[in-house]
Amino acid sequence: MFENQELNQKNKIIFLIGFMGAGKTTLGKNLADILNYEFIDSDLWIENQQSMTIASIFDKKGESFFRTLEFDFLNNLILKKSTIIATGGGLPCHNDNLGKMQNMGTIIYLKVSPSQIMKRIRLNETRPLFKNLQNENDKELFIETKLKERCVFYEQANFIIDAEQPIDKQINDIKCRIF
Ligand code: S3P
Q: How many helices (H) and strands (E) does the chain have?
């Protein structure tokens, strides 16, 4: 996984997990800049590898194929330096990916309430899991149900950050917990 075996991997890989709209990519990029870490986004990695958007992968090949790509992503990681990895919202909840991540590094759960997720999702409706949900009620129900299902995985993180706080507070929280 690490090209340089001398790196102590446990402290050098930070996974950000959480539901869609939790802000994993934004926080990850900011944190990586501040800490001088590499930043990798699993969705972006998959899109580059497949030369397709996540939406068209779901559309043309289906969700279960997408989940195998997420599994491949974790299993093909080659890291040159300390790295922050923002994962797709469902990645830790399939194929024992969470167990693998627990062995590889530190996992941080960015926790957001269903109502906040709803607000943030409204701003970006392109996510494929929302595609067939017609109205606000369906969307709210989907978020509540899915989040309940996924909490079991998310809450096994090494620690949890309140991702409704301003980003600088989130970064401070993480710095205090990790260093
Ligand atoms: C998904 C979340 C998305 C993306 C895909 C599926 C999910 O990533 O991986 O649309 O199952 O929650 P974000 O969490 O970055 O939106």
A: 9, 5
